[in-house]
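Continuing the series of single-chain predictions for the mutant panel. This is the parent chain; the variants come on the following pages.
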Amino acid sequence: MITGTNGQIPEDLADIGFDMVNSFKLLGFDVSWNLDNLTTNTGKISLKLISIANYWRRFNLSLPGRISIAKTFMYAQIGYVCSILSPTQEQINNYRSIIFSYVNCRAPVAQDRIASPCEVGGLGLFDICDYITSLQASWVKRAYVRTHDNWSYDINKATAGNPLVLHPTVINQETNPVLHTIAISWKKFISEFYKQNKNISKAFLLNNPIIHRSGDDRGILTENLFAQNPPIPKTELAKLKIDQIWCNNRMKPFHTVANITSVPLSLNNYMRLGTALTNYHNRLSREQPAINQSISIDHYLVRFKKGSKPIRNILQKPKTDKQQKKLPNYFRTFFRITGLDMPETEQLKHFSMSWQMTCLPNRLKDFTFQLIYNKLAVRNRLSHMVVDNPIDRACTFCTIAKQLPAPEETFIHLFWDCTTTSVLLNKLISNFIPELNALGDNELKSFVLTGLAQTRYPIITQVTRIIFLYLIWDMHQKKGYGTGKPSK
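Parent structure:
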């Protein structure tokens, strides 16, 4: 098969004797002679995701189990194809809907929190767009580390030996649609990277997507802009960085730039660069100042050997920072109904991630998630949801203990105020965790319900606390609704 615009087969190839076809399948990809069916490869992903979701729904997995299935099997279907091909926005929305509806089917959280990190109240799934962009951008890192395949060679050739200045304008979309897609994703990543922590101060100048020629000209600094006589070597121009010619918010002297760089800039090009960098500095000064912990993109990429997670973290950081400033409503509700003070940001981060402790089995992780997200079906909450068959709001344990009138079963009553819970907690502390006797009532309450205290206790104490709360809830479920004996 000959790829091209007309599909005609040269006579010298036709006489060889091979069978000529208009399309073929290779490694699961459908490819035609004019590359018009590439989008069909991304369209098949939805059917595979639906099949995986329907299969694993039969096992009634816990929330951590469903998250593991999504990351292991469902995202892998997207990554295999979309690491080189970009789906349409409609297809991306479809992928997101299938995965999120499978994971978020019980005790759901807000849609904007599903693809957020656990430390800001999310489930820790990946945003589909950031996931695809990071996979595609990671090809540039491979081309930068070593040139061992055709794509790496083509990227290095198009960027004069520096893949880190890749831009969609240097790749022909018609002749190489895959590399053009990779260049678009790299532009998205590098634009976000240069905006964070003043990384722009150590950025490459050539094809920099966030530096414009002037206030009126929004074009980027391309190779054609530096045309002069004698010409600048392309390899040297591709290595030119901002910190080589810019210092203390101004251009370095012309002769200084000529001495410290191997780029023979003409005075005209020197003035053009000064205009472009001054324009960017004026725009930057109007923004919120960032902490100066700048790092160059070449140093950042060598920090990790493989994978796309560091790239995805850069893309996700603006959304994460925004969500950290806006506390989820369920955290406010939890501390309001428990009567505890809202902790500091760092402690709140540990609290929101407590259900992700690796030493906990999935059953306890699922319970802890429902506990801190205030999704446990205590009786005073169920009574508002059931109309035809009203549920008694009285506490299950107090009713069994014949404490009449039995108090209303609320969250704080069941896990702290109830007499049965208090007796069991005192026995647990006296027999297994005597160091908790030194805590005051309010601090002990905070530790039992949230795991937060002024003293940092070992992980075994935290696990014991969660097991105790789970057993209280398990006995409540079995005693209150007559479904059998509590779990051992």
